Amino acid sequence: MTHVIQVDDLRTYIKTERGVVKAVDGVSFSVDEKEVLGVVGESGCGKSITALSIMQLLPDRFASIESGSINYIPRDGNASIDIARLNPKSREMRSIRGKEISMIFQEPMTSLNPVYTVGEQIIESLLLHEKMNKKEAMMRAVELLKHVGIPDPELRVREYPHQMSGGMRQRVMIAIALSCNPRFLIADEPTTALDVTIQAQILDLMKRLQQEHDMSIMMITHNMGVVGLMCDRVLVMYLGRVVEEAKVREIFKSPLHPYTLGLLNSIPKLNPKERKKDRLIPIAGNVPDPSEIVTGCRFAPRCPRAFDKCQEEPPLIEVETGHKVRCWLHE
Amino acid sequence: MNEQKIITSLDDNNVLLSVSGLKKYYPITGGLFKTHVNDVKAVDGISFAIKKGETLGLVGESGCGKSTAGRTILHLNKPTAGDIKFNLDGQMVDVNQRSIKRLRRHMQIVFQDPYSSLDPRMRVDEIIEEPLKAYGMKKDERKKRVAELLEAVGLGKSHMKRFPHEFSGGQRQRIGIARALALKPSLVICDEPVSALDVSVQAQVINLLKDLQDQFGLTYLFIAHDLSVVQYVSDRIAVMYLGKIVEIASSAELFLEPKHPYTEALLSAIPLPAVDYDREQIILEGDVPSPANPPSGCHFHTRCPYRQEICSQKEPSLQNINDGHQVACHFARELSLAAAPVISAI
Question: What is the ipTM of this complex?
Answer without folding.
Answer: 0.83
